[in-house]
Amino acid sequence: MRPPSQLLLPSFPTGEEEITVFLVVRTAYDDQGAWQDTLSYLSDLPGVLPHPPLPRPEHGGQGAVPPPNDKHLLLVDDPAWRNATTAEIHSALEQAGSWLPHLVLLADERTMADPVHRSLLAFTTSPEDQDTPQEHPFVPHEHVLRIGARQTSMLYLVFEAEFHYLGDWKAALPEEPDEVFGADLDLLASPPRYRPLTGRPPRLPVSEDPLLVRTHHGDDEAWNAVLRAVGAPVFDDEGFELPKEDPGAAHAYVHVVDDTGYTGLSFEQLMGLSPHDSHSFLIVADEPTMLDPRHPLLVVDLFEDPGRSFRAAPEAIPTIQINLSLANMDFDDYHCGEGFIQYCGSTHEESMKVL
Known about the structure:
- By secondary structure, this protein is an alpha/beta fold.
- It is built from ten helices and 14 strands.
- The strands form two sheets. A seven-stranded mixed β-sheet has the order 2-3-1-4-5-6-7. A seven-stranded mixed β-sheet has the order 9-8-10-11-12-13-14.
- The longest helix is centred in the middle third of the chain and has 12 residues, at 220-231.
- It starts with 19 loop residues before the first strand and ends in a 5-residue tail after the last strand.
């Protein structure tokens, strides 16, 4: 083992100790192009702090105080960590101070050799059960996995320190150690990718009901048609429409966000603006929704596989919203893949116009 080195981690202002922090450490240095490709998925995320070289013994002092943000992604690129093991990273974290990153990811040789996923070796730094003391709290426990760089970016956008730990994604995690969490995202024709915001849109509101966010403004008639369909009552098992004025009627419970401040934003950008302890999914009325006469809405997974999405007809939203919110069904039960619209109860309709 190399002599222990101290990770020069930033100091966070008082009150920011519970913000989300991901730490990415580069440990493979033979392919600069592969590293730049890996960074392309991460460097535009909000709260990124490109890390200065790790200090040698002659370097002292504390790290810079980062700008205010609700989460930070620390990118460590220092040849001193070439071929570093998880044990060496743990030792460095022990010396770094009282706080720990919520997720540590190593960009290792496998990352550089994997042009499709750029999978990172990920592990948490504290036990899932915070009330259970551990003799070696920095040793990876059961949740150690390979996670694609793209999936890492999506996970980072929705991860909240107070409400999440890696075990939340246990159902979606690969069963085999060599499998990559989020691999399916990289195989999509239009895979998700975060782009930096050009303005300063407000955070999405905290609400009791899931959000339906309008991001395309210019066709109020289409928008009103969407709202009418989403607000329509659900039919019962015998095909009879339940009157909406009936207190027992089933209909979609959504919080509509119609604000021009969100015009043109991608669903990935909306993920980054989602409120703390948000709902497990987000509904977006974007340009394809408004331009297609069927008005297919985009339903985005914020929990099981963050960043995964599908299109759904507005009239299907009540059924989808009720069942997902009550956990009667999972996102997988409705996910219909690219090029299809979910109608619920009927065959998925192929539609190239949607994409």
